Structure formats: structure tokens, C-alpha cells
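pinned: reference chain
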Amino acid sequence: MSTPVTTGPDAGPAGGDEADLTSAYRRWGPLVHVLAQRALGDSRDAEDITQQVFLAAWRGRSCYRPELGSPGAWLTGITRHRIADALEARTRRAALVEGVGAQYATMDHRATEGMDYAVDRALLTQELAMLPAPQRTVLRLAFYEDLTHPQIAERTGWPLGTVKSHARRGIRTLRVRLEDVQDEG
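pinned: its C-alpha cells
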């Protein structure tokens, strides 16, 4: 049984109209931004997190229950989840870069001579384009838009497990294809 959503000045984004969201942003936006800035150490990332938090609060406003805590506490919880997602994405990117760097470090010297960033990018774009559409969509959202698996699931409407499977299969396929190209060089 759900409790009716509170409206009024303390309702925050849960109040149900844009004026409540605007009021909540003015009141709680600086706190959300500071939390994200401290955790991520980057002002631009903190701005992105702040926007994501208020968008998530707006979309999930029907889930807010005032008896469980203040709007500030609710928004702080959303912020912590978004920060965790951002840190996870950083870790994934770092691991990917490290893996690619290690792969290039072990390549035959003749294969690396004359390699150009533009050629690598064109090759990766070509291989990505040959993936099935769901795998290509997931990988593009993950790497080009820096979205986490839960964010990709939310955007595409696919179950989280499906998103993870498409990502895993797409990366595996790309790895095999790129290793084949490396062996040919």
C-alpha cells in the first residue's frame, strides 16, 4: 500500500510539479554538487552527477516516502548511488585502457611501427559497426557516453542481465577480431 506523496515547500522533487523540483534543486543542489565534487575530484563530473541525481529524483518521485526521511536524505542517497556508478565507470575505463596498453606492449615491434591513432580508431569503428545492433548499442553507450550497466538498462529499457550479456559478448567479439587483425600485421 503506498502513502500519498507530500506536496508543498518541503516535498522537494517528490511534490510532483516542476516548481517543487526547482525549489529542491535550489535548496539541495549545492549539497549534491559538493558531495559529488569531493568524491570524484572533478567539477565537470560533479555537475553531471548533480543533473543525474535530480533527473533520477524527478523520475522516481512517486517512490519518495517522507516517513522514511527528509528530501535531503533521499537526494543524498541517490547521490551516493550515482557517485558509485561514476567511480565504477572510471574503474572500467582504466582497466580497458590498461588492457589495451598491455596488449600493444606485447605486440611485435614491426606491427607497431607506423600505427596511427586514426587508423586504430577507424579499425575499432569498423569492427564495432559489424557487431549485432544490441551489442553495438550497449558498447557505444558504455564507452562513448560513459554510462554504467544500470544506466544503459534504464535508457534502453532492457533488463540489466541482458545489458551485461550484450556487453560481455560484444567485448569478446571485438577482442577476437582485433587479435586476428594484430596477427595479420
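why pinned: The two ends are 64 Å apart (CA to CA). The mean pLDDT is 80.
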